From TrEMBL:
Name of the molecule in the record: CRISPR-associated endonuclease Cas1
InterPro entries referenced in this protein's UniProt entry, alphabetically: Cas1, CRISPR-assoc_Cas1, CRISPR-assoc_Cas1_C
Gene Ontology terms: biological process: defense response to virus; maintenance of CRISPR repeat elements
EC number(s) stated in the UniProt entry for this protein: 3.1.-.-
Gene Ontology molecular functions: DNA binding; endonuclease activity; hydrolase activity; metal ion binding
UniProt-listed PANTHER family: CRISPR-ASSOCIATED ENDONUCLEASE CAS1 1
Domain of life (superkingdom): Archaea
Organism ancestry: Archaea, Methanobacteriati, Thermoplasmatota, Thermoplasmata, Thermoplasmatales
One matching Pfam family: Cas_Cas1
Gene source species: Oxyplasma meridianum
Length: 196
C-alpha cells in the first residue's frame, strides 16, 4: 500500500514541476483558493494541479497494471522508501505519453500540456477582471487499449505447446510476452483474442 502512495507522490511531484511558471502568467503562487495561503509555499500551484491530477491517477493505474514489485523500490539510509530510477523513469514516460495525447479543445487538437496552459491563462484573466466568466475545459482522458490484466496474464501463461494448439504465430506471442515483461502496453488483435 505504501508503494502506491510513493508512486502517486512521484507522479504529483512531476505534475507540480510540469505546471507552467504561473508567475509568468501573472499569478501569485503563494495565494491559494483551495489550499491554505502560505508565503513560503505555492498553494496556488497545488490548486491548479487539481485540474489534472486525474492524468497522474490514470498513469499510476497503468503502472500498477503492469505490476510493481518490491524490487521497484529502494530504502534510503533514513529508511525512506523511494522509486528506483528505472521505475521513476517508466512512471515519467507514462505520464508524458498521457500528457502528449491530443484532445479536441476549442475546435482544434491540443496536447494536455497546452490545454493546461490555456486553462491557467483563463484563470489569470478571470481573477484579474479581464474576463467575466471562468470555465475550465478539461478533456476526459482517452483510454485506447484492449490489453486488460487478465488478457496480459493469459498471454504470459501460454507455453510453446499451447501456442501450437492455439495456432498463434510464434513471433507474435514472443513479441507480446516480451512487451508485457517490459511493462509496455500491447495491442491484442481480435483473431488472437478469440484464440486465447
Amino acid at each position: 500500500m505504501e508503494g502506491i502512495k510513493i508512486v502517486l507522490d512521484g507522479g504529483f511531484l512531476f505534475l507540480f514541476n510540469f505546471l507552467p511558471d504561473i508567475n509568468t502568467i501573472g499569478l501569485e503562487p503563494s495565494i491559494g483558493f483551495l489550499h491554505e495561503i502560505a508565503p513560503s509555499k505555492t498553494p496556488l500551484v497545488y490548486d491548479l494541479q487539481e485540474l489534472f491530477r486525474y492524468v497522474i491517477d490514470y498513469s499510476v493505474i497503468q503502472i500498477l497494471e503492469y505490476g510493481l514489485k518490491k524490487s521497484d523500490f529502494i530504502t534510503t539510509e533514513n529508511y525512506h522508501i523511494r522509486l528506483r530510477p528505472e521505475t521513476a523513469k517508466r512512471l515519467i514516460e507514462t505520464i508524458k505519453e498521457n500528457f502528449n495525447q491530443r484532445y479536441l479543445y476549442k475546435g482544434k487538437k491540443h496536447t494536455l500540456e497546452n490545454i493546461m496552459f490555456e486553462n491557467i491563462t483563463e484563470f489569470s484573466k478571470f481573477i484579474s477582471d479581464n474576463s467575466k466568466k471562468l470555465e475550465f475545459t478539461i478533456p476526459e482522458i482517452m483510454i485506447k487499449r484492449n490489453d486488460d490484466i487478465e488478457t496480459r496474464e493469459r498471454i504470459l501463461s501460454i507455453d510453446p505447446e499451447e501456442r501450437k494448439k492455439l495456432k498463434i504465430n510464434k513471433s507474435t506471442l514472443w513479441y507480446q510476452q516480451k512487451k508485457i515483461k517490459e511493462g509496455k502496453q500491447i495491442k491484442v488483435y481480435e483473431k488472437t483474442r478469440v484464440k486465447i
